[in-house]
Amino acid sequence: MKGLPPVLITAIVLVAGFAICAMQFPNIASTRVVGNLLTDNAFLGIVATGMTFVIISGGIDLSVGSVIGFTTVFVALAIERWGVPPLVAFMAILALSAAFGAAMGAVIHVFDLPPFIVTLAGMFLARGASFLLSTESVPITAPVYSTVSDFALRMPGGGRLTAIAIIMLVIVIGGALLLHLTRFGANVYALGGSRTTASLMGVAVGKMTIKIYMLSSLLAGIAGIVFSFYTSAGYSLSAVGVELDSIAAVVIGGTLLTGGQGSVIGTFLGVLIQGMIQTYINFDGTLSSWWTKIATGVLLFAFIALQQGLVALARRPVAKSAGAAS
Amino acid sequence: MTALLPRRGLAQILALIVILAVDRVVSPQFFDLRLQDGRLFGSLIDVLNRGTPVALLSLGMVLVIATRGIDLSVGAVMAICGAIAASLADSHGLPVVLAAALGAGLVCGLWNGFLVAVLGMQPIVATLILMVAGRGIAQLITEGRIVTFSSPDLVWLGNGSVLGLPVPVVIALGMLILTGAVVRGSALGLLIEATGGNARASELAGVGTRAMILAVYVWCGVCAALAGVIAAADIMGADANNAGLWLELDAILAVVIGGTSLFGGRFSLVLAVLGALIIQTMNTGILLSGYPPEFNLLVKAVVVLAVLLLQSPKFSGLAGIAARLRRTKA
Q: ipTM exceeding 0.90?
């Protein structure tokens, strides 16, 4: 039952926060608002799922926002300018982003470099490449897009569960199953717990590192496609800073940033908390959007401080080793 | 100065010369300088002037990285301090404005240092908090507007000149000499490197590692504050959304180009500033060549990768350092 207590705390924060919001604005507690919340944060949920794997394995992926941006531009140009059928364009971009992630993972492993700086280079590379493709917003008019945008399951109370929200939920569930029930997931935890131990236990560290970053970039690619459904356009500056939002969601969801502990469900709750803050601010009307950032920062601090306390408690008998903090 | 410039600076100097030569090919007037109204003008001066914010940031960042830390919040701190300076500029004198802005930077640094040194958080995580929240705080100060000012004193800080050189360049040079004198003129630099090399061993040897870590984050905050004030003075306004955006990455890049290891333990102030100049020379060169500025990011990515790959065999070659690396990962 790895990481259960932090997840419970996240869940309590979410429920309590939602209750406070609902008390102040009774209309928040409707399926309409919840449906919109899921739709608005669909891409974040997808990308944060991938980030969870990376962070649990002890790494970090700063390139995801840029990969989303690149994906939207690539898909828009492929469909609108180059006349590629949408499905082919989707397949191509997913293959491309998976290869991109695999390359980053390979560089991290082979050259033994900090993931932080390698994915930083990846972030520059992907953003620069999307600028090269096009610097202007390219609207997408393909019929698939209107079909997908119009599709929605009706929920009781008039809410709409849109196609992109469904995609997000499927990926979150799939990610949770992959992380908690498969050998791959167990290896991710092992890698985050201790790379040396994992390698001694027979985990193919190199292959795992490549696969983990491949998964993260692949999910970023899917998030990019979802983002293009959401905005019906491709724009090279879209999703700037999403890497921070998704890291914040992962941390608020109770995943340990040093790796080894965490869960996809917690990340999903973290995404919902961020969405809830945004919704509250929208409902209030007098608060400006920058309060979202401050509130996220405060939550981030609270959860990291909490983790720090829990880790200190758990490791007390082992004495304070210098390696624990780094 | 010889103490500041170790032998390993050769690669960086060569790189700068090569890039300058490429710039000269791209734009034949690149080395032209002319004196006008008691101030030098020309592409070279432009490189120095525009490179100032990143150079200042890298001065603080290099010390943080030397302790095996990282400060992601410098861009946000720039935005906060620029916002403070801009909102006070027209109602208060320059000393008050500077004191308030630098004080804010100091407090930001103290916060980061507290999280890392006292609470023992990972530096990336600890400074991520201020990186996310800081821009919100800056917007709180400017109330979401772009605050403009016309105080001639503050504008002089961004656009004036001393002895023909732009004021920002003089400030950066002064900060480099000051920082160098403090950390290399005393044992402080050595203690900082010891902290980054092996915090536990240094602690046992009697180094006040907590105080060292606290001090470098505070200094990083102050440098970022100065960069923020200069950036605001340059455009005569503070834009909480865009001031210092992504500059933390440029600063880290400058430090890495300067040959300082991300694993701590050694650093060079001069080479970090040289790294900042290399980045700016590339940026200016790309602009002058008529390529779209979007190429900047691609070129930067390629440069980061190249520098990292060049550095990496050195790491794996030295068994001692390699063992330390593995322990970091564990």
A: no
